[in-house]
Amino acid sequence: MKREKTDYIVQSVCNALDILETFKDAGELDIRAIREKFELSKNNMFRLLTTLEAHGYVERNPYTKNYRLGLKNFELSQAYISKIDLIKTTEPILEELVDELDESSYIGVLRSKSVVYLNVVETSQFVRIVPRIGSVGSPFRTAIGKCQLFDDSPEKIRQRIEADEQRIRGDQRSPRAGIEGFIEEIEAARLIGYAIDDEEFEEGVRCVGAPLRDYTGRITAGMSVSGPIQRMSHDHIEKSIAPALLRAASKASARMGYSSHVQQEHELTSLSEPQ
């Protein structure tokens, strides 16, 4: 017998979500006002509110002791909006970048152990490098992945690699093999603002990637340009590809609310966080 979707609903979760929705039309509520809206015991109501408070979904006004929505709701809404707006915001910039360089350009986001390609604008060149939208790549072998590690401490990068099922191994095509060598590569790339995949993900292909930052200063995505090594010499990358990519990434970040003021605050926060 096929089970209905309602058979899988967890009532306590429903109660917690219902509590959150009561704040849509109210700035603050005391526990009595919240209880009046639900048939829950005082003990159950207190447990739910305490759990929501522990996770940042509600908070208490230190003066009135009333409950109100916590910052976690804002963070989730911004995360949702940013993913919707990311493609719309960056697509015209990608198109301008492709018009300028005549090489395919991409947007990708780091998710767990992979980079997911969200958008691609193709070059008009006969030979082109075009990953499928939704396809995934290694954050350690792609420029679009490497650049999204720029804010990670060496220890965080080391943990990412060690947690990956396919760790960085020696590769005859790349002189920058091994965990410590990779960390040094990211440190050097961070200083110039972009990372390079030198035939590490696909033989015969070079890629340059730069991070995109949002209004908080955090890296939320990467932008990259790829092409066959015959058209992507290191000299061409340094003189033409990288400067154009950095301009495009800066423009995209600005449209997502990033500014030099945010950058300064983000750098100060990063310095105060334990490494």
From TrEMBL:
<dbReference type="InterPro" id="IPR050707">
    <property type="entry name" value="HTH_MetabolicPath_Reg"/>
</dbReference>
<dbReference type="InterPro" id="IPR036390">
    <property type="entry name" value="WH_DNA-bd_sf"/>
</dbReference>
<keyword id="KW-0805">Transcription regulation</keyword>
<dbReference type="InterPro" id="IPR029016">
    <property type="entry name" value="GAF-like_dom_sf"/>
</dbReference>
<feature type="domain" description="IclR-ED">
    <location>
        <begin position="72"/>
        <end position="258"/>
    </location>
</feature>
<dbReference type="Pfam" id="PF01614">
    <property type="entry name" value="IclR_C"/>
</dbReference>
<dbReference type="InterPro" id="IPR036388">
    <property type="entry name" value="WH-like_DNA-bd_sf"/>
</dbReference>
<dbReference type="InterPro" id="IPR014757">
    <property type="entry name" value="Tscrpt_reg_IclR_C"/>
</dbReference>
<dbReference type="InterPro" id="IPR005471">
    <property type="entry name" value="Tscrpt_reg_IclR_N"/>
</dbReference>
<feature type="domain" description="HTH iclR-type">
    <location>
        <begin position="10"/>
        <end position="71"/>
    </location>
</feature>
<dbReference type="GO" id="GO:0003700">
    <property type="term" value="F:DNA-binding transcription factor activity"/>
</dbReference>
<keyword id="KW-0804">Transcription</keyword>
<protein>
    <submittedName>
        <fullName>DNA-binding IclR family transcriptional regulator</fullName>
    </submittedName>
</protein>
<keyword id="KW-0238">DNA-binding</keyword>
<dbReference type="GO" id="GO:0045892">
    <property type="term" value="P:negative regulation of DNA-templated transcription"/>
</dbReference>
<dbReference type="Pfam" id="PF09339">
    <property type="entry name" value="HTH_IclR"/>
</dbReference>
<dbReference type="GO" id="GO:0003677">
    <property type="term" value="F:DNA binding"/>
</dbReference>
